[in-house]
Amino acid sequence: MASLKFTHAVVCRIPLSFRTRGEIELEEAKRQHEAYVRLLRELGLDVIELPPDESLPECVFVEDTAVVCNGIALITRPGAPTRVKEVETIRAVLKKELDLPIVEISDESAKLDGGDVLFTGREFFVGLSEWTNEAGARAVAAAFPEYPCTPVKVRPCIDPDENFDLDTLQVTESRHLKALVSMAGPDVICVGAGKAAQEVLKRIEREATFSYQTLTVPEDIAANVLYVNGTLIHRSSDEIPESTKVFAEKVDFARRSLSMSELAKAGSGLTSCCLLFRRTRHIRSL
C-alpha cells in the first residue's frame, strides 16, 4: 500500500477572469483560496504557488492537469479543449522545476481529468464522465501498472431531489468521480448519501481488490474531502451542518474545516485546487 502522506503541493492562484464562472465574489474566493493554501502549509507541505493566468479562468483547478503517484506524473488530457494550456503549464513545472519523471498519453482519443481519478493507496478508480473516457482510464492503468485500475461509470446527477415529478425531471451537468467519493483517511472512503454517489460506491465495492470502510455524509457536497498527513479537511459547518456532525461523531483523528462557498460556485471541491505528492529532494521556489 502506498502512503497517503505528502511532502509537496502545487497550487495556482485565482485569476481575475475567474469571476466569469457564475456569480462569484472574486475577493472572497481569493480569501478562501489563501486560507486553503495556508492550511496546507500548516500541515507540513512545501507548497509551490503558480501565478494566475488571465487567459485560463479555470487554472486554479490544478488537480485536473496531472495524476502524480510514487514520484511519477501522468500528464492528463482534459475533456475541455480550452484547458490544454493549463496542462502545458503544469507539465513544464513538474518536469523542469520539480524534476518529476513525466508520462504522456499517446492515445489521441483519450480524455482524462484528474478529478476523475481516485487513488486509495491500494488501487485506482477512474470515473467515466463527461471529461474522462475508457481510453483515459487505460492511460492511468498503463502509467501505474503496479496498481489495479478500475473504470467506474459516473452518471449525471438528477435535479430536483427524490420527490421529483417525471414531467419536470432534469439532468444536471456531470460531476467528477471525486465530487461523489474521496479518501477520508487510510482505507476510508467518504461518500455522499445521494443516489448518484451511492451507485458509484456500489460499483467501487463490487470491483475493489480491498474492502474499505465507508463514511457516508448526508450532504453530497461534503463528500469531497482532503486527507493530508493525518488530518481530515472538510468544508465549514455553515456549508455542511449535518455532515459536520457526522465528521465530529465518526472521525477520531485531527480535523480542520475550510469555507469553499465561492470556489464551489465554479464546481470546485477541496481536492480540485491542489496536486499532492511525496518527494524527498529539496525543491527550489518558483
UniProtKB/TrEMBL annotation:
Single GO MF annotation: amino acid binding
Record keywords, A-Z: Hydrolase
UniProt keyword Hydrolase, yes or no: yes
InterPro entries referenced in this protein's UniProt entry, alphabetically: DDAH-like
One of the GO BP terms on file: citrulline metabolic process
Catalytic residues of the enzyme: 176 (proton donor), 273 (nucleophile)
Family named by the database record: Belongs to the DDAH family.
PANTHER family per UniProt: DIMETHYLARGININASE (PTHR12737:SF9), DIMETHYLARGININE DIMETHYLAMINOHYDROLASE (PTHR12737)
Record-given protein name: Dimethylargininase
